[in-house]
Amino acid sequence: MTTTIIAIDTTGLPDRIPGWGPRVVAIGVAQIEDGLIVGSAGTLVQQSAAHVFDERATPAFRVSGILPESVVKSPHDEEDVMRRLRSVPLGTVTGFNLPFLRDMLSLPPWDRLNLSWGSCVMAEAARVVHGGQRLNLNAALTWAAERGADLLPPKDATLRCHANAVRVAKLKLELDRCQR
Q1: Gyration radius of the chain over CA positions
Q2: What residues contact residue 56 under an 8 Å CB cut-off, 6+ apart?
Q3: Contact call for residues 93 and 116 (beta carbons, < 8 A)
Q4: Strand, helix or coil at 25?
Q5: pLDDT > 90? residue 180
Q6: How far is it, in rounded angstroms, from Cα 24 to Cα 51?
Q7: CA-to-CA distance for 167 and 5, rounded, in angstroms?
Q8: For residues 161 and 9, is the Cβ–Cβ distance under 8 A?
Q9: Which structural domain range is residue 152 located in?
C-alpha cells in the first residue's frame, strides 16, 4: 500500500486576509511503501506575477524562502503539476498539518485530483508524543531525532516543501514503529 506525504508552500493562509485567495507556489511529495521511502520530488508551481508580487503574498515568501520571480518563471503550472501527480499511484495522501493541506488542495484546480485522504501526521504525533496536546513540526521532529531517527532531507531537495515532505515521511515511519 502506498502512502504519499505532501507538503506545500503557499502565498498565505486561507481566510486570513479578507479578499485574498492564497495559491500553491511549491509542492513536495514523498512516497512510502512497505515501511520505506521509495521516492520524493519537489517543484515550484507557476503563478501569475500579479499574484506573487502582491504585497499580501510577501510574508509567505519570507517564510518559505522562495523567490517570487522563481515562481513566475517556473516551467510547471498547476495543470502540469497535477498531470505529474496523476501519473503515479498516490494511494493514501497525508501530511503534517492535514487540515491546512486539505483546505488548500480542495480548492480549484487541485480539487480535480480527487485525493484519498488519510489521517493527520500532526494529530498522530500529538497523540503519541504529547498525550494528545498539539505540537509543531519541530517538536515532533525533535522527538523522532531523540529516538535515533534519520530526519535528513534528500541531498537533491532544493525546496523547503520537498525537504519537509521527506522529513514528515520519516516522522510517520517512526510514529508507525513506535505504535507497533
Answers
A1: 16
A2: 11, 12, 17, 20
A3: yes
A4: strand
A5: no
A6: 11
A7: 10
A8: yes
A9: 2-179
Q: Check the CA dihedral 79-80-83-89 and report its sign.
A: negative
Of the candidates 78, 146, 149, the residue with the CA atom closest to the CA atom of residue 109: 78
Name the residue type at position 90: L
Residue with cell 492564497: 22
Contact 104, 129 (CB under 8 A): no
For the whole model, what pTM was predicted?
A: 0.94
Q: What b-and-e string marks burial along 77-91, b requiring 16 or more CB atoms within 10 Å of the CB?
A: ebeebbeebeeeebb
DSSP 88: S
Number of folded domains in the chain? 1
Which burial class, exposed, middle or buried, applies to 124 when counting CB atoms under 10 A from its CB (0-12, 13-18, 19+)?
buried
How many residues can be counted in the chain? 180
pLDDT tens-digit series, residues 83-109: 999 999 999 999 999 999 999 999 999
Neighbouring residues of 110: CB distance < 8 A, sequence distance ≥ 6: 24, 78, 82, 104
CATH of residue 159? 3.30.420.10
